Task: inverse folding
DNA sequence: GACAATGAGACGGTTTCTGTCTTATCGTCT
DNA sequence: AGACGATAAGACAGAAACCGTCTCATTGTC
């Protein structure tokens, strides 16, 4: 499969370019020069050009992000453990990822928008798909989905705007914070969202 | 002097931009946005635009480089001490300066040319002007000039192309290497360059 | 209120970048 | 050897970005 190798070469080159210059400053010609692949080949592998290439890189990085996450969640023994491991691992990975950090820092307009407006739903969706199997070992599917949805939003929010009250990169703190959250969200009496509540 | 403050603001902004994106990727509009100074004001402070701004930054960085150097050389007790201190300090400063490193690494064609073709003579000249007073405390002016000239070239060369034999960032190694060099260059019998020699 | 300094941004000319296309080269298969 | 698919090299036009200049509005100071 020569195409796979080409795709990898190109995306690796894009990654190096982004590391060096930041997202907004990388041109297709930079990638061509860095990858050693010809312009024509690049457009054959990624028809659509610039946007498609960067989109492919985002997808690859997101895949990688969640494969690390699932590896961390593998050995969890109970629901809270799954949740804490996932949240902490995600937080630490986001923090350690200087490339993502650069994406966030370099161009507030463009790149932050990438994460919030476009990337946010995708991350939540992906978290749902990827982590649901691990959560449904302990709670039914609807509860799992609601749990993952809320927690992925919380994780991203606390990464983007860290709080002085709790550090999601710190396992004990995260556990203390998440314990009641998980408890509430898994209570059988939990009302469906967007519906009027009878009690009170 | 509002102009001085403006100049500083702009150059600081350029420095941040260069740190973030590398020399070749910084535009005037980036600097304008980063500095918060208007385009018109920038061109009033630096008539000539882009080239002049970057030139001013280079000058400022060179000034700063040598002010650090002279501070190091202040307390030297003999000629070899002056030389070793200067060479070691210059080498370490060059190595620690990630911005210069980025200039060297980012664009071999453009930036390395900046140092060798254009920057090199300037550094040598500046070294001469700045360090001569400290060297003439121990040897006559013509000898001092020759010494500084040779040693600044050696320093830059060993920085750009490190040798396995000697590390100019290491005081003892530098001293061992430089001792005979200094001795030879300060020998009264040293023949003037480019002239035929009578002996032998 | 006059005036100098600065910000905001429009504008034309130039350069750079993009995406497509053509041609040449290379390796492989028959 | 010759045919063929894949890739490199690069020309090209249209679009976008950038540069440097200019005008005008705003601000702060006397």
Result:
């Amino acid at each position: 499969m020569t195409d796979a190798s080409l795709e990898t070469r190109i995306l690796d080159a894009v990654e190096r370019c982004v590391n060096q210059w930041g997202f907004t400053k990388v041109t297709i010609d930079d990638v061509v020069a860095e990858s050693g692949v010809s312009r024509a080949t690049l457009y054959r592998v990624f028809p659509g050009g610039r946007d498609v290439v960067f989109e492919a890189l985002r997808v690859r990085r997101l895949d990688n992000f969640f494969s690390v996450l699932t590896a961390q969640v593998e050995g969890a023994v109970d629901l809270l453990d799954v949740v804490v491991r996932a949240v902490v691992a995600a937080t630490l990975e986001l923090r350690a990822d200087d490339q993502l950090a650069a994406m966030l820092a370099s161009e507030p307009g463009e790149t932050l928008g990438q994460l919030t407006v476009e990337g946010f739903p995708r991350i939540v969706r992906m978290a749902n798909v990827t982590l649901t199997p691990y959560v449904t070992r302990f709670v039914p599917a609807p509860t799992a989905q609601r749990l993952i949805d809320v927690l992925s939003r919380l994780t991203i929010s606390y990464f983007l705007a860290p709080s002085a009250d709790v550090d999601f990169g710190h396992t004990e703190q995260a556990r203390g914070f998440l314990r009641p959250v998980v408890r509430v969200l898994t209570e059988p009496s939990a009302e469906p969202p967007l519906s009027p509540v009878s009690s009170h």
About this structure: Chain B has a mean pLDDT of 84. The two ends of chain B are 64 Å apart (CA to CA).
